[in-house]
Amino acid sequence: MKNQDFFAIGLMSGTSLDGLDICYAKFFNNGSIWSFEILQCETLPYSSELENELRNAIHLSSEELLKLNSEYGFYLGEKTEEFILKNKITELDLIASHGHTVFHQPQNRFTLQIGDGRAIKSKTKRTVIYDFRSQDVIFGGNGAPLVPIGDELLFPEFDACLNLGGFCNISLKAEEKRIAFDICPVNIILNDLALKLGKKFDENGDFARAGKIDELLLNKLNQLPFYTQSIPKSLGLEWVHEYIKPLIQNHGIENLLATFTEHAAVQIVKVIDDYGIKNILITGGGTYNSYLLEKIKAKTKTIIQIPEKEIIEYKEALIFAFMGVLRSLDLNNILSSATGSFFDHSSGLIC
Question: What's the domain range around 123?
Fold first, then answer.
């Protein structure tokens, strides 16, 4: 490939419902080496109405879900166009949208991220690439995690990359292959519990720090079958409702936060140590949970790297922008070694 610059916007909405992440970045290809520069980024908090709609989308009828898919697509388009105008963006090759995950059942060969890309295009009049996960599931994969291609090509200096989002996932090199998988739920549970205390999240893990670990509950959580399943594997909201929610009923909220924070740290460190990781990059909203990070650091000798704020908060949106660039070039943007699909492939619908 000839040396070339690409300008792209990545849109990301995570399961923790922190808001819409928008990242405008420049990607440069120098032969086989990729580099990037984040030019502008912003998180747009959801209105309480939209947040509730997205949170409860799993319970909608098919007709209501189709309506939300369209409405949310127009919302993404409007907010992206506002971002483009506000930042006076003139160089833009494409918009890549992850959408918002409602269903994720790779075992049943389907996954659904709402936010119709055609609606985004109608508002922005730009090339839009969306629905990155479905093809991988059709090809026998988990449809997740997808960010390992970005870890491999944009962050090669780290042994592993860990994302502390709604779910925690990891990407690392093992036997010359990039593997990746979900480790455990994190913010999807911690944020939900914090809401019961009147906060959107447990700032610095202060509620958890004030609680007491319930050893019996911790044991039950650590013994969930998912943690002994072979990789590749991924988690979804359905799994949380089936396995986690029934276990955490009828407990004090602060004690639950303390126990689940400990649970997450135990599962994360188990993976880090099992793979002998020497240094690891940690990003995602959970990076600001100082109590969780203290727990992780206390249990492992691995060198933990915390990057600048832009990478902490926008790494996933950045990588989806990059995946859009790769898709536009018809280059592989999904690794079968990470998702379990039949082969590496180039995924995403181009509108």
Answer: 4-147+314-350
Residues 237/188, Cβ–Cβ less than 8 Å: yes
Same domain, 264 and 328: no
Task: Give the whole-angstrom CA distance, residue 279 versus residue 312.
Answer: 16
Residues 215, 282 share a domain: yes
Q: Read off the pTM.
A: 0.90
Percentages of the chain per state (helix, strand, coil), in multiples of 5: 45, 25, 30
pLDDT digits (tens, 9 = 90+) for 190-246: 999 999 999 989 999 999 999 999 999 999 999 999 999 999 898 988 999 999 999
255 and 167 inside one domain: yes
pLDDT digits (tens, 9 = 90+) for 68-118: 999 999 999 999 999 999 999 999 999 999 999 999 999 999 999 999 999
Ranges of H-type helices in the chain: 48-55, 62-86, 117-124, 134-138, 148-154, 187-195, 206-210, 215-222, 237-239, 253-274, 290-299, 309-328, 336-339
Number of neighbours of residue 330 by Cβ within 10 angstroms: 9
Number of domains in the chain: 2
